[in-house]
Design goal:
By secondary structure, the protein is mainly β. Helices cover 12% and strands 40% of the residues. It has a five-stranded mixed barrel with strand order 1-2-3-5-4. The radius of gyration is 24 Å and the shape is elongated. The protein starts with 13 loop residues before the first helix and ends with a strand.
């Protein structure tokens, strides 16, 4: 297993538990600068994190709580928000105080190692593991390794446009993502390229079927209905259509040469966000180019990394 995983994916592993339960193994990990994980129990008034190690007490001093805390480029909320959550760290030293043995830990060092040995090797088009950390109107933030966070813009989540990332993701969800760019320490991700081409998604549907979808927009010439996150069709207008509602739709025709699916809306229903783990057509490796549109279609829709 790679040592450069999103926080939380290492904590329950047998090796991590074994090291945290043994002082000799913990000292060995200190010498080797092994990245470990534990749960942050509390953050004191000075913003030092107490960490559950098992064999002894652990503390992450405030200035070592995250890359950027020391120079002020990252706010203290990056430390405070870790309470009751997994944190990665290396062991800086094992000492004693009036309460007994104490391991001084560094999340900053773990993140620095991750940057030097993993993040610095990534290139645009690389497919990686990530874990959703929080959602904003403009996109989702995801941990790409040891608590290092990247931005996944809302328009890169899927081909079908959405109002908010919560329609696709939930905090804590493990996803795959593509490195879009790494510039000045900022990592940008994409996701839609992993969800399949127009043809791959359209292959799941047959003319004459009635299926469910989500009304994404209502225009003067028809309503766009999402059938999958990377596929939408155009439905004929009818009364009282509203974007954001679920619909049952009859598939009239599928036209690859025009990259169109013609639909008839049968009925509409209230829709509640229930994010499901994405279905990926590509889940590992590297992609230089993603051609979404069908080969025989006159319109070319592609991403070049």
């Amino acid at each position: 297993m790679s040592e450069f995983l999103p926080e939380g994916k290492r904590m329950a592993t047998s090796r991590n538990r074994e090291i945290l339960s043994s002082e000799p193994l913990l000292r060995e990990a200190m010498e080797r600068q092994t990245i470990l994980e534990g749960r942050a129990l509390l953050c004191d008034a000075q913003h030092n994190l107490s960490v559950d190690l098992g064999c002894m007490r652990g503390v992450i001093p405030r200035e070592e709580g995250a890359l950027g805390i020391r120079d002020g480029s990252v706010r203290d909320i990056a430390v405070i928000s870790r309470v009751n959550r997994p944190v990665c760290f290396t062991v800086r030293e094992i000492t004693c105080d009036e309460h007994g043995k104490l391991a001084v830990l560094s999340r900053e060092k773990a993140q620095q190692i991750c940057l030097e040995r993993y993040i610095s090797t990534l290139r645009s088009g690389d497919i990686i593991d990530a874990r959703i950390t929080h959602l904003e109107n403009f996109g989702a933030f995801a941990d790409v390794g040891c608590g290092i966070v990247a931005l996944l813009p809302i328009d890169a989540i899927s081909v079908s446009r959405i109002e908010h990332p919560r329609e696709r993701f939930a905090v804590g969800m493990d996803i795959k993502a593509v490195i879009s760019s790494i510039e000045n320490g900022r990592i940008s991700l994409s996701h839609k390229e992993l969800l399949g081409t127009w043809e791959e998604n359209a292959a799941a549907f047959i003319p004459g079927e009635t299926v469910t979808g989500i009304i994404r927009s209502v225009e003067s010439y028809g309503a766009f209905v999402e059938l999958t996150p990377n596929l939408a069709g155009l439905a004929e207008l009818r009364d009282n259509l509203q974007a954001g509602r679920q619909a049952s739709v009859y598939i009239k025709s599928i036209l690859p040469e025009k990259m169109k699916i013609k639909l008839i809306i049968i009925d509409t229903f209230d829709y509640r966000f229930t994010p499901k783990k994405p279905h990926y057509y590509i889940s590992e490796g590297h992609i230089d180019r993603f051609l979404y549109s069908p080969p025989r279609c006159g319109k070319i829709v592609e991403t070049v990394f």
